[in-house]
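mind reviewing this fold:
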Amino acid sequence: MVDLPCVRTSRRINVTPFPTAVSASDDNTDYARLPGVPLRQWVLKHLYMSPDLNQQREAILRKIAVAYAIGKLLEHLRIMVSRYSRDQLEDLCSVDNFVVYMSSSGASDAGVEVMGISMISPPLSLKLTSSLFSRSDFFESVHHEDLGRNVEAVVTKHSLSCCSQTFAENETICERLLCYSFGVLLYFLFFGESLLNVIIKPVHQGNDAELDVLLERSTPAKSACLTAKRRDAVARALSLSAPHTGTNSRSHANHVQTNFHTYHSVASPHAVSQLVGDLLDCNREDGVFRSDDSYSSLEEAIDDMHLLLQEPKRYLFEDNNACYQKEKLLTFANDKMYGRTLEASALTDSFCKVASSGRSEAFIIGGFSGSGKTRLVHSVFDSVLSAGGMVVNRKFDQTSNCPLAAVLSAFDDLCILIVDGKSEEYTHQVYQLLVAEFGTSFHLLAHILPNVLRLAPFPSTALSLDEDVLDEGEVNFYSLCDIIKRFMRVVSSSSCPVMLFLDDLQWADPVSLGVVHTILSDLRGASCLFFVGSYRDNEVNPTHIIFGFCDQLSAFEVPLTTIHLDGMPEEDMNLMISGALGMFPRLCRSLSQVVFRKTGGNPFFVQTFLRSLVDKGLLKYNLRGRSWVWDNTKINSENITPYVLDLVSAKMTKLSTNVQSALKIAACFGSKINVSIVQDLSKRPPHSSLLSDINEAVEDGVMDLDADGSHYRFVHDKVREAAYGMISCDCKEQYHFDVGMALLSSCEARIHERSDILFTIIDQINHGVPSLLRCESQRVLISKLNFEAGSKAMQSYNYTSAYTHAKAAILLLPHDSWKTHYELSLKLHFLFAKAAHPCKNLVEARDSLNKIIDNADCIETKLDAYTLLESILFSASAFKEMDKLSITIIGALESLGENIPDERTASQELTNEVCLAKKSFEMESDDSLLLFHESGPKTNCSIIHAYNILVRLAWSAKLKSYNFFIARWVRFCLKSKAASKYVPAAYATFASMLCEDRSIQNLQLGYRIGKLSLKMLNQNKFATSELPLVYLMNYGHIAIVFEPIQACIDMHRQAYKIGLQCGKVLLAAFHKQFLVVREMLAGTNLLVVKKEIDLELKMASHHSFPILKKALAIHYTSVVTLIGDDSDGFSQQPDDISDVQLFEHDAAYLFSQMFVSTHLGFFERAKRLGERWESLCKSRTMLSNLRVSVMSFYYGLALIAWRRKNKWKNVPSNVHSLLEVVMNAAKCSAWNFKNKVSLFKAELFSFGCKNSEAEVEYNVAIKLAQASRFIHEEALANELAGMHHERLKDTEKALALFQEATRCYREWGSRRKTNQMADKTHVFSKWSLIVLMMWSKTVSYDYKKI
């Protein structure tokens, strides 16, 4: 069964044949019991229609559905049988050859439906099944009965056989004869009289006035449906005579065919008359009255009837007054899409993949303005909603200075959609998940997306926003991206996908697209976002950020689809024009050809072009013919611009002056303007009539009012562009400025209460900054308003907006502003620097901070500037400038009374400073060390702050005085007892130094001080921003010596999240680096580790962190080598380490390669790496205890294995010193190192042939590795134990141990080691079998001998 599309204004009918007129169908309806009514009787019964217009229309639709079903049957017969006679065809199409089956036989037509149609000869029946739709779409009515049908037709094999037998030997008849015969049948069906009974009177000779009077007095229910082809045809329609009952001969029929071309019925629509008339025109043989509109095939007529059923409101039933008004407007189907079937299918398929896989995707649409990009995207909204998803969309505006605001508001709207569209239980569950995900940082999320608080079960349970904490946090672009990414992980899923549509990407900025990129490139795959973006590809160049955005998505392997929209195909454009004119598509082709040549098929251009033709009188509605008429020759000769903007502009010039002025004002605000803004501007002259003028623009079809009445909106971007173009380029700045100042005077009392009004006003005024502001007081006022707007934007993390407003404010300051307006200048430059940094305008940020440093009148202010400057320099890797800054900080400390020695002296005094600090910690109790005072000189906090900056600079620039500065820093904290947020960082940094500097090492004291720093951090709510640093020192250098490595991994992961949240991106990156190394040492699955490094490498490349990228690349190579990807790893043959110049003395490189070489059995390579390591340890005093202990373990194993391989009889002396290092580490953390000690001892016992002791230690090492969950070291212990038993010829134990090692390596994710052990086990199994067989033969021989 062919399923034809069903529109919402139609009734759907399935036409299914059953073999005979009395047979029943396969469904539950017994058609044999339905009342059958001959078609003639059924037509005559419905000839006289109810005076009710709705019932008339329903009856007409019922007749069209029957006609369509009969047409489909005739089409099938014509396809299957090509030979039949004229007489047989007339008998076949006779009205007496059909029977109609009704759903009931009631006296009233209400509720009665046509259920089937039967053909008597040949015997064939069709079943009709209706799907009902409300007719309230057609006309205003309180009733909700159905109206309209779609029809499907399928003919059974039984019917085909019957037809073939009946017409197999008949002569060929013209296709037009079939159309004509069908037309005769339809004439009776619709008009209730036989065409053969009509007698033609002389052509009406009345004048035009009589026709006009007739048309004016007619009503839609009673008027004649006059043909639209020629005026004489209209006259003939008025001269129809009464039915003649005399003749019924075929000769008379031929006479009528030759002379009759008018079809008229009181209640028939014009489209029906057109349809029937063009069918009857098919048999004109003399050519006198034959119309060019006559049908060339039956399929054309069937398509037209199908169109009448699909869209009766547009094609069949005219508006009550539209066809009798003097000017009829074109009506385009704004809710219908033409010529974009393939593109819509691609868009829908992409969304379906997102919903099914749960993986985010992107879909980018390019095309000229007016090509239908927005409408295409809107076409899939229903699919997203039906799949349980949510849709948010925003539009970037050329006039807006806040592109990021569009993106953030879209995500904020998601919270509203959840509240309004989801169950209460689901909403509360999302809220709890968000609270659990963000923890103490939930206030940051709520500050960015305020509507998230609406998800709370009760308003009282919503977490409050702590403004103090917000002000202290150093939140930037990276933290914003992380917060939005984690938010999307919670609210989106495969069961609830989110579609984000951003229109006009050509006006987007890097920050906005960066936020979207972060969500899409979330390699955890936790977000389920379908991002769709559209842009005007004729308004961007190859260097536009859109293309960089797409390249970044591809680099992160985000599925991306890009399409380009050209003009519509000509056939689809013809359908659009057909719908606008309400005429059959075949009648509009000549006009469509001309329009297509002029517009290229651009949808908006087509609409604008047609309206311009109407305005010029080249396309007009013929009132008498009730159809549109045009002259192709005149349209072709018309010199019409190829640019749609010129057409729109030309139309606007015809509007009234007031309306044009109103449109120019509205265009200054973008594609839409808030109604409240219009009302405010209307309060005072010269814009008093603005509200009424914009309402007039709505009536003129230039603007629309939103459904909620909140905004006036231009009907299209090109309309807004044309309106804005009416302002001359030289006057645009002045025009914006005047509008802004007028709005300021109207809203000055409310400007500080509503942020939206503030931004709207200041954005308009800033077009004239600073040239149009000459009065200093006025300049200062606007500068303060810009500062207020920038501060609000910064609080919402809208850095682009904050940067723009701060820059505008600074431009308005007088030259001596640091003297006359010190506080304002200071605040503005701080705001500008903080906003410029995330916007990657580092030079401007540094310049602004240097101005603060040069002009600040107190050290605290300068230190704040130094802190921000140090962060900027570090992110830019400007180490030379950091050296200079450190000298500046030392000078600041000396001005505060601190005596800072030079580098040489500091090196000599280091031991004394450390001893004094250690003594202070040893003498005081924990409670005393945690006690600090809020009171005290402010300079104490400033000094602590300065030391904090100096230590960070010394570490970044690798200054030799680094340890001395740390000792001085912590000593001053202990001495001053000042309650500074930097004290926990001082404690943690000093503790780290005690643990890692071998010259002053004191592990237990360092561990105690580290714990104190963590307690202090929890007590001080203002120290949240210092948490990443404190955690890095503790869990990266201190706690790892004492606590299980898995616990430290969890804390690194937590610190990584917090670091991103509070803007400490580089510290977060270091946590990720530590996390990766710890996961390798803890035996985390290598595939998981590889995926994590993949993500961080891409992020490091994307955010330009070369140091992090270099460090991670080392570990990435090691991981992929262990996994088994030879292309990314080193060769299985030992490499010459001396050739590796870049990493010759790099501890991370040596550590990583030692780990890999030992596990893969490359002991000679591992030995040489160990020798390099020993050389490195001699040249450095600061080395990680964890790294030293683990390197000692693997180096010791490599030395023993290498000596055994080369058949040495004793081990080198340094092996015992290496074992001692590992044993000392085990005293601090048995969990991390006890299994390593046992395995080390087992290897030594095995080398010394102490087999029983070795076996005991091997078993202990295996069990301890299992207890600590070190799967890789369990595998290594099994492997080495198996090799030990192999040397002892204990094949059974060796084989079992090798098999267990294979299992562990497989669980670890090392395919290379798994394959290596599997091969060894396979060979060893064969050898064991051979030995077993030889032993069996020996035993058997000895037994026989006995």
